[in-house]
Amino acid sequence: MSVDFDLIVIGGGHAGVEAALAAVRMGRSTAIVTMDPERLALMSCNPAIGGIGKSQLVKEVDALGGIMGEAIDATGIQFRRLNLSRGAAVWSTRAQADRRFYNQYIVDYCKRQNKLTIVEGLAGLIMHEQDRVIGVRLEDGTPVRSRAVVVATGTFLGGLIHIGEKKIKAGRFGEPAAYRLSDSFRELGFELGRLKTGTPPRLDGDTIDWSRCELQPGEDPIPFFSYRSAYRQFEQTPCYLTSTTARTKEIIVANYRRSPIFSGQITSSGPRYCPSIEDKFFRFADKSTHHVFLEPEGNGTSEVYPNGFSTALPEDVQAEAIRTVVGLENVRITRPGYAVEYDYCPTYQIKQSLETRRLSGLFFAGQINGTSGYEEAAAQGIMAGINAVLFIEQAEPFLLDRSEAYIGVMIDDLTTRSTTEPYRMFTSRSEYRLALREDNARDRLFGYARKYGLIPDADFHAFKATQQATTETIKRFSKARVRVSELGGLADRFTKFESVTIETLLKQPNVGIPEILPHLKSVESVTSSSPEILERAAITIKYQGYIDKQAREIAQFKKLEHERIPEEFSYQVVTGLRNEAREKFARYRPGSIGQAGRIEGITPGDVAVLSVHLKRFKSAVA
Q1: Regions of the chain with pLDDT less than 70
Q2: What is the set of domains in the chain, with CATH numbers?
Q3: CA 472 to chain centroid
């Protein structure tokens, strides 16, 4: 087949960019079809990367060679680590970005890639021959042929913006939506649904009384995301915390009927964990105030993002309400907040590889799969890009399970559960979160990255040296001793001993590298170790018992995951199976016995019946 590109990616957001760059790293000619080549990976909502659960995804994307971590490290204006008072399983990093600089960094990076072409246009039709995709036809009629296609349309697929009673056909403020592409999916037989997300008004920072708000400083030393980033020291831009008032609630409650969320104008589901301000006051009627985080949009602008004040109220109500927030009494709105509805495809229609079941060679990534967030989109994008290349090469798909990565947790959740609201990642979604920490993303995924040519060999070998240095440091900590009399405030914990090992110290509650650093001078070759190696060693020592326990749980989990269910297996011939279970198995097509058991509404009895028939099926075809 004559093609223009090996892979076409529809959409230049975070999912589309990661998909395209992964394919380029794997040596494939790739095109990104986007309406504006200068707006790649634009942060259309909050100017930040990371957060609880989300930073783990960024670290995993980075370990697979992705660009997101590197880009935020280069363009971030403030970095913080969250949950440090809790266990390492939930430590998370979050960075405020210079929104414009982040976008420009990605654009410049993409322009330097020899095998990447940016096609300016609007995709209108998925071209196919029988049940295989062969390319995309643009809305102007231009055909672009390829061996595979990744769809990463964000909120542009059937996008409709709501500001009060006003409706605008757009996927993002000031940008048209893709309606013909939605029609193309329907014609192909895909089921489409509608979801909603929203964004707050943007504010002029020069009109904010910062003295009335609470300072939220950055962290030093700066915790970067990417293993590739060189350390840079800079003056971090402060964020601030403020709150709504009783008067804010009065204004919003009085105008519920003018909100499209309550008037019936919007009928689709929005993100549960990022509700609009009007939804907050409705759902939490007993609360009179809510926090609002004031996040600068960058160093070159005075524009501020009021995180926590997402709204679709009319502009006049937005202006009245926002001026009742502490410190914002005289604030000027530079752009109104809005809600946006968009089309998505319920995820029973995709495989774990993110390839669609209806059309081979067609992959979905990002909000078309019902997720929300830059990080979730980027993680799906890189997996879709890798698997699209493997599809072209007729190789086995790259699949991550729940014990290997948050990426695996997310994709498993999407393909085994009904997506009725935008999906967001949290550490609580993983039953193996101690094994899926921020600090060990490369331990878990670097082997895959090397296998698929996503990272240079030199990076892989350098990390092997880091792993070896960590092992050696752990050994030294188990032998090196410190006199109890020299422990200061920690001495009370060891009154019966003359000396204790560094390992024993690290196992104590609220004791980490900062607390024992003064005692490391006598430990050979440790004082010169990098902070990364010291922290890796400390985490392993402190949580070794729990890590070992989780490893045993993962081994049990793997047994069920290894019981694979062939794609051609027919559930209609499984006798003794409840009708509901038969219908759900046929709908979701689980890839393993373990995944079958995680489908909503499936009982242990259903799994037992399925397992018996699967063994008979495999024996018959052996």
Answers
A1: 1, 522-528, 622
A2: 5-152+347-451 (3.50.50.60), 202-338 (2.40.30.260), 457-548 (1.10.10.1800), 563-621 (1.10.150.570)
A3: 33
